[in-house]
User: Which sequence fits this backbone?
């Protein structure tokens, strides 16, 4: 799913008639402030994600800003390419000729993990985890198979034993957890010694060093690739599809009141988020970090 798939957007879209009523009562500016406060209250995130994934998003199954260039002609090829880039980094540092137990934290509707598994050797046994029950129900109906299964759970309290996983995968989700350092510690706990953390997300440029310190404090050694230009180009090339997703699936009330916000969360060309990438105010980084 594109970055329409954010908790705030999900609340707006899922509550279109409420938004209209509040807009009439309080005015657009005050409503937007209230929604920003709701977005920043991480205690509400699980319920908002669950509401969001309960909506009908049609064929849209993969949630990231995308990576360009991307191969193939799949409508979500830029989003799938993000996962293939992570797989490429895994293959560069770890032989895949023995069984590998992999977990994706925050798998959403599962399209990215399914693309990862399809491109990976048969030695990879994957589990997708998400906090939203509605997302896991969709994944089980759509993607579950011999090499791929799904469980509900919280990123800050992973339901896996210590040192039980070979690889943990996390794509563009860690900024939503409210306690990124605790998440990194949980990843380190469930990984075996020398396990790999395939991690990618975007950060305000001034916050990059803080993230790196948190990751090091959790016990990881990491070298990062800056893929901001690739992500910005994917946003540009994929804008028409993302706008079509908004038109088809966002209720009219949400589009009328929050078109700019939806475009921002989708990262379409010219939006505030896209310009933050283009102008260097936000960096998008990727790593295959090793648990020391």
Assistant:
């Amino acid at each position: 799913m594109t970055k329409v798939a954010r908790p705030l957007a999900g609340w707006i879209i899922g509550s279109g008639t409420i938004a209209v009523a509040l807009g009439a009562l309080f005015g657009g500016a005050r409503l937007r402030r209230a929604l920003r406060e709701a977005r920043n209250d991480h205690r509400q995130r699980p319920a908002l994600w669950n509401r969001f994934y309960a909506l009908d998003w049609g064929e849209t199954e993969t949630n990231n800003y995308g990576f360009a260039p991307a191969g193939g002609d799949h409508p979500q090829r830029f989003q799938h390419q993000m996962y293939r880039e992570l797989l490429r980094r895994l293959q560069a540092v770890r032989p895949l000729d023995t069984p590998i137990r992999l977990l994706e934290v925050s798998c959403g509707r599962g399209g990215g993990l399914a693309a990862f598994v399809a491109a990976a050797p048969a030695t990879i046994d994957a589990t997708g985890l998400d906090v939203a029950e509605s997302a896991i129900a969709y994944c089980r109906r759509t993607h579950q198979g011999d090499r791929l299964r799904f469980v509900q759970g919280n990123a800050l309290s992973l339901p896996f034993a210590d040192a039980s996983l070979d690889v943990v995968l996390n794509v563009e989700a860690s900024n939503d957890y409210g306690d990124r350092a605790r998440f990194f510690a949980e990843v380190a706990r469930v990984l075996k010694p020398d396990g790999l953390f395939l991690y990618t997300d975007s950060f305000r440029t001034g916050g990059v060093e803080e993230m790196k310190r948190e990751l090091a404090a959790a016990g990881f050694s990491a070298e990062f690739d800056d893929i901001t230009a690739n992500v910005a180009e994917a946003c540009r090339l994929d804008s028409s599809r993302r706008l079509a997703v908004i038109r088809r699936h966002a209720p009219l009330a949400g589009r009328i009141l929050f078109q700019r916000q939806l475009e921002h969360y989708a990262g379409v060309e010219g939006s505030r988020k896209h310009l933050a990438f283009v102008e260097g105010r936000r960096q998008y980084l990727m790593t295959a970090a090793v648990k020391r």
Observations:
- The first strand starts at residue 100 and ends at 105.
